[in-house]
């Protein structure tokens, strides 16, 4: 019975989708970057979230559009404030790994009510950023399923 069979394979397929097959590239900034420069960089890179790294390129924070907006309406000189002052910091960051399923990642996006997760590799001393998993990633995977539901 074709209708039922199709929906079963679709569900199976959903759970086979992995972060590593859909995530986009990492967009990172140093902790010392000013808020002003971070805003320019966010526009230039056309992303909604920047990941912040320390000298060793390890994840220390996340900067969202609203973090930058909030600072912009409350502060005189955006050229004087480094992003590490206003970012959301480790260990309060939700992240995922390449081997995770997209369903797990989607769950974290919804539970934490955030737009994106850093894709990381666990390293001695911290997390190395290897990509970005966003609501757009999930939408792209959703469309992929409509083209491959066999
Ligand atoms: P926006 O606020 O621009 O709509 P988000 O909803 O993603 O974007 O971010 C909401 C808040 O959560 C911000 O303060 C941001 O720093 C923080 N945040 C964003 N992504 C994460 C994440 N993966 N883990 C923890 N906090 C995050």
From TrEMBL:
Residues 22-78, 87-150 form the CBS domain. It comes from the Bacteria. Keywords: CBS domain, Repeat. Transmembrane segments: none annotated. This is Transcriptional repressor CcpN. It comes from Lysinibacillus piscis. The chain holds residues 62 to 211 of 211 of the full protein.
């Amino acid at each position: 019975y074709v209708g039922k069979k199709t929906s079963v394979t679709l569900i199976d397929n959903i759970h086979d989708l992995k972060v590593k097959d859909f995530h986009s590239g990492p967009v990172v900034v140093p902790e010392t970057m000013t808020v002003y420069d971070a805003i320019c960089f966010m526009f230039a890179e056309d992303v909604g979230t920047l990941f912040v790294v320390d000298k060793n390129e390890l994840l220390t924070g996340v900067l969202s559009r609203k973090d930058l907006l909030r600072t912009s309406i409350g502060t005189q000189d955006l050229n004087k404030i480094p992003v590490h002052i206003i970012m959301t910091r480790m260990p309060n960051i939700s992240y995922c790994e390449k081997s995770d399923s997209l369903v797990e990642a989607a769950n974290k996006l919804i539970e934490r009510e955030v737009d994106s997760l850093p894709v990381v590799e666990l390293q001695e001393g911290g997390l190395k950023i290897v990509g970005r998993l966003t609501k757009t990633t999930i939408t792209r995977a959703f469309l992929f399923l409509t083209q491959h539901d066999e």
